Amino acid sequence: MKAKWRFIDSNNRSPYYNMALDEALLEWHSKGEIPPTIRFYGWNPPTLSIGYFQKAEKEINFDKVKELGLGFVRRPTGGRGVLHDEELTYSVIVSEEYPNMPKTVTEAYRVISEGLLEGFRSLGLEAYFAIPRSEEEKNSLKNPRSSVCFDAPSWYELVVEGRKIAGSAQTRQKGVILQHGSILLEIDEDKLFSVFNYPNDRVKERMQRAFRSKAVAINAIAGRKISIEEAKKAFYKGFASALDIDLEPYTLSEEEEAYVEELARTKYGSDEWNFKR
User: Fold this and answer.
1) Is 149 one of the catalytic residues?
2) What is the domain range of residue 121?
3) Do the beta carbons of residue 84 and residue 150 sit within 8 Å?
4) In the chain, what are the helix, strand and coil shares in percent, each to the nearest 5?
5) CA-CA-CA-CA torsion for 54, 55, 60, 63, nearest 10 degrees?
6) What CATH number does the domain containing 90 carry?
7) Which residues constitute the catalytic centre (predicted)?
8) Is CB count within 10 Å lower at the N or C end of the chain?
């Protein structure tokens, strides 16, 4: 018998709702109220999210964020800035005690990300895991130079033709792993680089050039246009197959929705949370 996990497709929601639902799922799973869950979602409006430890005021050009009509939210996970626009975002919520779930962050990350690997492969992309080899690569992971998430592949990030194609982050709370990440279908580099602060234009240009050589979106290499729907099908199958599970579609109850909306408003929508560092 395969284990049964829940599957939730939230479609496009506000940045605050998206982070609140991920947190609520972690909370409910920690109490044993729900089984492990995989969730797909999008963003309305397109949103800049930053990692838990980033300094918002210092790193982000908020005039530009406003001018472009972007949402802004701090994630409960680490990592760097991500512009969520034409992408499929996923989250996986599973107990640290789940059978065969490795104890270390990097190994658990690899196990969960196998679902992404299978998804990319079923879309016809030759994806593989990046493993930092040299000491220099390992050190650069400890001291990222850039505020931009897709700037460098870290342990077990997914790579196609040498460039990073999905960026993920993980947090563990209450004995539960929450891993979420972005699968980019398209990427607007100019827009992405316009929302961060740089010491000067030269540094910005250099970083943008470096980024181009290190990150890529699915549709730039697939040789055809892959829709969100096609991507959802591929990654749904990818997770089910890699984790050897049955996914059961689930819709939140009114009570659950109300809880998430409240958390979105009081926590993730608050300046205290988003600008606290």
Assistant:
1) yes
2) 3-274
3) no
4) 40, 25, 30
5) 140
6) 3.30.930.10
7) 149 (acyl-thioester intermediate)
8) N
